[in-house]
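Running this now, will post back.
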Amino acid sequence: MLALASRWLRDGAGSIGAAATAARSLGFASVFASEPPTDAAKGKGALDALGLSLAGVGAAPVAAAGEVRGAIDRAAAAASALRRPLVVLDLGDAIARKGEAAEEAVEHFARALFESMRAFSGLAVAVRPAGISSRLFGLRETEWLLDALDRLPIGVLLDPARALSIEREGKGPAPVVWADRLASKTLGVALHGLGSAGGHAHPEGVGSSLGPLPDLLPSRAVRVLDVGPAVPAEDVVDARRKFEEVLRW
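Update: finished.
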C-alpha cells in the first residue's frame, strides 16, 4: 500500500487534515506527513474519520549534526500526538565540516541521533540518504551510521531515485544493491522519479533499475509516493499505478 506524501500539496503540506483529505480524494488509504504537521493534536481524528492510516512523520532536513536534535524533537512530538512513532530524518543535505574525515563526520551524526533518541521512548527513526555524491551519506556512510547505532530502533528509508542519481555519477552502486545490503535495516522506501527537487512523478528512468527490489523489502516497511508539489493530480494517480505495476504491489 502506497502512502501519499503531504509535500505534494502546494498549500497545506503542513496540515495532516488537508493531506488526509487530498490523499482520500485520490484513492490513497495512507498518508505520510512530509513535515511535522501544525494540526497534529487533531490529526488522528481527521485520519480516523477518513479511514486513513499514517505512514510516518518527516523531520526537517538537516545539513549538520548540530541540527539533528531540534529536527527530531519537533517531528517526534507530532508523531506522538498522531500515535505513529516513526520519524524520517532526511540526511540528503548532510556534509562533513571543513577538514573533517567522513568517518569522523558520521560519528558526530551518530552521537547526535543517540542523544535525540534517548528523549523519546518507543520512537523509531528512518534516515534518508543523499542523492548527490558530494553529500555525506552515500551507501558506505549510511552503513557506518546504522552499525554505530545498531542497538537502537534506527533504520533507513531507501530512496531508489537518489541512489540511481549517484550511480549515474559513477560514485555509487545501483538501487538494488542498497536494498540488498540494507534489507535488515529498511523501515521504508520513498518512490519518485528523477528530476528536480520537486520530485518527478513518473518512474521512467527509475522503474527499470529496481529489479528484485520488491523481494528485498521487509513486509513491515512503509511505502511512500513522494512526488510534488508541481505535479497534477492525474499524474499522481498515474504514477501510483505505474510504480505498483513495476513493483508488483
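The longest strand covers residues 53-58. More later if anyone needs it.
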